[in-house]
Specification:
The complex is a heterodimer of chains A (252) and B (103). Helix content of chain A is 71%, strand content 0%. Chain A is mainly alpha-helical and 252 residues long. Chain B has 103 residues and is an all-alpha fold. Chain B has helices spanning 12-22, 43-72, 75-98. Classes of the chains: A mainly alpha (252), B mainly alpha (103). At the A-B interface, helix 6 and helix 7 of A face helix 2 and helix 3 of B.
């Protein structure tokens, strides 16, 4: 997979989508990304359902995980958005766990990381953007458009500033999606490149086994780093959604 | 005689705290790389954020300029006009992200 016939390192083929489930999947265009998305959803449900089923006074490990993650996202919403944040908690919770499980599952070998596709992250951020705009319009009506008119500047500059504000507002879609996508893709390319080093240098044998071992240890470090990035990026996506929702609810 | 924290006369909570910090159980409550805003605080994280903010605004501006050019048939003019505006919006994004909070 890593080192293809002509001696190069093909680090990008891991992101290729292939139909699964044979002929049926081909007809319905089901790729491994779709399957992993469903798995992420099911795992989140399982964590909550199985974790909370003992309803113990002193929670076990799984129940603790379920309770703490629930409280963490709830605090995030309330702290960032304010008291109204509780209304958006289900949305932020879903978003956070969908991305978190997508990122974390991708760290395991042979499992496809659906968050490494710009199509997926762009769809998510577009959804966030539309929701934020919808919330702002619903809360403030046409007054929402005053968000784009900064105060305390010369009248002559107002049209230019409005244009800049609109572009800045629209650029959220890009920055939100590219941040997640770039982080996940870069990490997986690095893993693949160093993995290919291990294979190629290891196959050469002799003195080359030393750099091969070094590459392997780099990969071990990278896996740990990937775990951090996976959690951090899910958190960043959730907190930025909260910040945008705060702007939409409070308009400044 | 000076009482050492965690000495026999301290309250239980204090002694527990001292014992925990001796054993290194009271690590920083938040993992490294987090700040109160919850966004990356490592130099690389900041650099990546600035880069993405700058480029994102530029991409949006160029897309708008190109779209308007296509609409009005004024091929390069509006795209060119939107490039500096997009750059300005990018800098504005960065400033808004990293500006010191003014109350």
């Amino acid at each position: 997979m890593a080192a293809e016939g002509h001696g190069g390192i093909d680090a990008l083929s891991q992101f290729k989508l292939v139909p699964v489930f044979g002929h049926l999947g081909e007809t319905l265009h089901i790729s491994q990304a779709n399957v992993m998305m469903a798995v992420a959803g099911v795992l989140t449900l399982l964590l909550m359902w199985v974790g909370m089923s003992p309803r113990a006074m002193i929670p076990g490990r799984l129940q603790s995980a379920a309770e703490m993650s629930y409280e963490m996202v709830l605090n995030l919403c309330v702290e960032q958005i304010g008291h109204e944040g509780k209304r958006y908690f289900p949305f932020v919770f879903t978003l956070f766990f969908f991305i978190l499980f997508g990122n974390l599952m991708g760290v395991f070998p042979l499992i496809f990381t659906f968050t490494s596709h710009i199509a997926v992250t762009l769809a998510l951020s577009l959804f966030v953007f539309l929701l934020v705009t919808f919330v702002a319009l619903k809360e403030h009506g046409l007054h929402f458009f005053s968000y784009f008119v900064p105060t305390g500047i010369p009248v002559v500059l107002t049209p230019l500033m409005v244009l800049i504000e609109v572009i800045s507002y629209l650029s959220r879609i890009i920055s939100l999606s590219v941040r997640l996508f770039a982080n996940m893709m870069a990490g997986h390319v690095m893993l693949e490149v160093f993995g290919a080093f291990v294979v190629m240098l290891g196959a050469a044998g002799g003195i080359y086994l030393v750099p091969a071992a070094l590459s392997l240890s780099v990969n071990v470090v990278l896996i740990g780093f990937e775990l951090l990035v996976a959690a951090l990026q899910a958190y960043v996506f959730a907190i930025l959604t909260c910040i945008y929702l705060h702007d939409a609810v409070h308009l400044h | 005689m000076r009482e050492e924290p965690g000495g026999p006369d301290s309250s239980f909570e204090e002694r527990l705290k001292a014992a925990r910090s001796r054993r290194g159980l009271d690590g920083p409550t938040e993992p490294k790389g987090f700040n109160p805003d919850g966004l990356e605080s490592s130099p690389m994280g900041i650099g990546l954020r600035v880069g993405i903010e700058l480029v994102a605004a530029l991409v949006v501006a160029v897309a708008i300029g190109y779209g308007l050019d296509w609409l009005f048939g004024t091929k390069p003019i509006l795209t060119a006009a939107f490039v500096p505006v997009g750059g300005a919006a990018g800098v504005w994004n960065v400033w808004r992200t990293f500006a010191p909070k003014s109350g």
